[in-house]
Amino acid sequence: MARAPTSRIPLHTALLPPAGVAAWLAFGQAGLEPLALLLAAILLGNVLAAVHHAEVVARRVGEPYGTIILALAVTVMEVGMIVALMLTGDPNPSLMRDSVHAAVMLVVHGLAGLCIVVAAIRHRQAEFRVEGANAFLAVLIPLATLVLVVPNFVVSVPGPFYSPLQLGFVSLACLALYGAFIFIQTGWHRDFFLPAGGDSAPIAPPSGRIALASLGLMTLALLSVVTLAKALSPAVLEGVRAAGAPVALVGVIVAAIVLMPESGAALRAAAANRMQSAINLALGSAVACIGLTVPTVAAVSWWLDQPLELGIAPGGTVLMLLGFLVAIITYGTGRTNLLSGIVHLVLLAAYVFYIFAP
Asked: What is the CATH number of the domain that holds 308?
């Protein structure tokens, strides 16, 4: 039996997008530090509002277009934040590398680990489809390797950089892999990503009026996120420097903000014993992060004539590949338990620790 469709728009998701644009117009370019916390709160609210409205539109249009809309909404937010920081102060060629690396580690270990622990505490063991989890890993592992590891070993350009030709090829490869994954997920093998018993309570689509209003509010919310990110960029960079933290922490902040809405949805799904939905949300966000963000930011960097430092350090490479090996073991049985969740959380802790103590 279908659950009731969305019949109204929550008030806060309707008020936050115009409030974000108004705040940016009024204060965003003034550089007033006392307002930084207020602008940050409005930005985070608009991240949540944008994803909410994207989900409403996605339910209206159905698959595969709904998945594409959700991915594009998250990508616009991440790209907007990265480009805003790229345009602020001194060039930061490693920003995209740090944010993509952080997104992979936060998803594979942080979000997935928390989902496994929550499901284990509530239900002891959680079941999911091995085929779906393996499909995510089959795309995520080569994407992460091509973007974050291979640049350290090519010889056309010294250092952890790609030549323009190589970066163009990798960008096309990311798009091709993401497109092929979307085709499989929404077409030929859609059942790989559904619960074993099917969707017992599908969500009925919202009305056309609600969907159209959400489309407009989603666009406004994304505009608010991008503009407020640009306004807050100097404060973020200055705060990281003032705290004596590594610059790589900026990438972690960007990734955490972008992943925040999907994290809440994934944890709720895990608590309700819907581990397949939690995996779809968690690993799907990492696949979209690399598959769509890297080509977009690469195009912007070419237009701005700014290099992109992509290769991660040897220690980070070992830790990331170890994480993928553990993920293969975790998702290879179709069941998760508390131990596997704790292992993933320990690996996340190691990643964060080595940012501050490389």
From this structure: 1.20.1420.30
